[in-house]
Amino acid sequence: MKIIIQNEIDLDGEMEVVEEIRDVEAVEKGGFLYLTYQNDEKERVVLKITDTDCTMTRFSKPKSVMHFINQETTVTQIATPVGIQILHVVTDRYEKRENQITVGYALQIPQTGQDLARYHLKIRWGIF
Hints:
Blueprint: E1 2-11, E2 14-23, E3 25-29, E4 32-38, E5 44-49, E6 53-58, E7 64-69, E8 72-80, E9 83-97, E10 100-108, E11 115-126
Antiparallel strand pairs: 1-2, 1-11, 3-4, 4-5, 5-6, 6-7, 8-9, 9-10, 10-11
Pfam family, one: DUF1934
Protein name: DUF1934 domain-containing protein
């Protein structure tokens, strides 16, 4: 099975498009769908998906967790070259349909509410 991740990133008007195709393991357990794959940095990434939200856990050092809930703001910690940054994950849109989720979100600086970047993320999985 494969996972296709397409992410359109708006960095202050500069658009970047990232696409990844990876082997993925899918397991349904307790009402959740777990998708597990390895990213370019050889880190294990686990997506925990429901009809209403998605948690993305990247097993880096330190581990980073992002939680996407439609029309909600959550908090994440991301390792950067200047240390750990605490950011808000502002999800404008979360939609799950069959073997696809679509997420529109922004990473914001909590102190100022300023967007660092806006994202349009589409994740599909299956046999392609």
